[in-house]
Amino acid sequence: MWWMRNPILVALDVPTMDQALALVHELAPVVGGFKIGSELFTAAGPEIVRMVRATGSTVFLDLKFHDIPNTVARAVAAAVRLDVQMLTVHASGGFSMMQAAEDSAQRTASLTGRNAPLVLGVTVLTSLDGPALAEVGCDDHVGRQVERLATLAVRAGLRGLVCSPLEVAGLRQILPSRIKLVTPGIRPEGQDPSDQRRTLTPQEALAAGADWMVIGRPITGASNPRKMAEAIWAALQT
Ligand code: C5P
Helix (H, G, I), strand (E, B), or coil: what is residue 178? Predict the structure, then answer.
């Protein structure tokens, strides 16, 4: 599939700007983009987003906004001004919050002459199982809660979702095909799953219907991160 866009987003789960930029410079030519999460953003601030964008790389800002609609809308507007291509909000923040997030992404993008970033809904954190969900007042089965929040996110106008690799195939069946699915929990064949419990290989995730895959330690912890990223990308194209 030589025409395929590189779907690999490398999770920059490192504590300093220097470590993040070293990875970005090594990997930018061979991956599809980078995910900046709470640790790096809190340590290095918005400047890290500007620096990664300055390399021409796609940025996925994974701060999982969850607040009243007005506050989330303003945070999304700030992210659009930083020129990120993807960002996350918690679907459990509700219909109006997600609608406000999407609206703000569209409006701010058109005001600034940019493409609107993909606002991705996060359904149920994979760290939560049935009993943990019950503790926060949701007695439904985890799978049903994921489907409920995914459907709500789409009704609110979101154009993408983050989901666990094992949810991709099921969600593909119930969601419109235009909805983009981004999945972490990816482990190349034969690799240590570390703390990830439910994983798929990059090829399996793609076959199940993922549009993007977030890969952290298998690449960033490899003895040669660039070679590892190249090998994963090559395998995806066969
Ligand atoms: O190192 P690893 O490949 O496990 O990194 C996966 C990345 O995706 C991390 O940044 C992690 O926080 C994130 N993530 C995850 N599982 C989820 C949601 C996000 O591993 N359910």
Answer: coil
